[in-house]
Amino acid sequence: MKALVSVILALFINTAVAETVHLTSLSWPPYSDKSLSEQGASVAVAKAAFKAEGHELVVDFFPWTRAVKMASEPNSKYLGYFPEYKYDTSEFVFSDAMGTGPLGLVQNKNKPISFTTVVDLAGKRIGVVQDYVNTKELDDMIASGAIKGDAVPSDDLNVKKVGSGRIDAAVIDANVLKYLLNTDPSLSEFKNAVEMNSVMLEDKKLYIAFRNDAEGQKWQKIYNQGLTKIDVNNIMSNYLK
C-alpha cells in the first residue's frame, strides 16, 4: 500500500509541474515546417527533449525575421526560436546542439564555381537569405563588400536565381536544397540545372536560441537535460534519410 501511495504521489507531482513551452520557428523544411510530419526534423528533436523532462512543446511558425523578433520581446509567451546557428549575441542563450546541417553553395551546373576557401569567393555575387546567419568569414566578407551579397526572403528564390544565372551561387543547407528540388513545383524547371558545390562551407550545428532572461535560462537548462535522454542523431538521421 505504501508503494502504491508513493507511485500515485510521484505521478501527481510530475503532472503538477508539467508545463507547455512556446517557441517560434520558420518554414525551413525538412528541419521545420507546420505541414511536415512532426513539423520537421528539428521540431521532432525539440519535442522529444522537452517530453523527456515531462513538458510539452508548442511551435508557432512565422517568417524568419518575425520569428526572431517575437522571441526576443520581453514578457513574450515565446521563450526562444529555432533552428538557429550559434552566433555572438546578448539577446539569446543557446541550447546544446540538436543536430547538424551541411551548409554549402548551390551552383549552376553549366557555370560551376571553383573555390577552396571563402576568400576565393571574392568578387562573386553570392545569394543569401535575409537575416540568416551563415559563416562568420562569409558574413564578414559580405559586410565588407569583398563578396557581393544578394539577399532574398527565402531559399527557393535563391535557387531560382542560381538556376537562371542571375547570381554565381547561393548559400544553402544541402538537405534543404534536396527537399526543395523534390517537392516544390515552382523549382521543377531548375531541378536539373542546379547542384551543390562539392566544397562544404561548414557542417553547422543547430540550436534553440532561448531569450536571455531568467525564464529563458531556466528552460535552456531543462531542455539541455532532456537532450541527454534522447538519441538526437537517430531522430535526425531517420527523418532525413
UniProtKB/TrEMBL annotation:
Q: What is this protein called?
A: Transporter substrate-binding domain-containing protein
Q: What is the lineage of its organism?
A: Bacteria, Pseudomonadati, Pseudomonadota, Gammaproteobacteria, Alteromonadales
What are the UniProt keywords, alphabetically?
Signal
Q: Mind telling me which InterPro entries this protein's record contains? A: SsuA/THI5
Species annotation = Shewanella septentrionalis
Top-level taxon: Bacteria
Describe the family membership recorded for this protein in Swiss-Prot or TrEMBL. Answer: Belongs to the bacterial solute-binding protein 3 family.
Q: Where does the signal sequence lie?
A: 1-18
The SsuA/THI5-like domain extends over 102-182
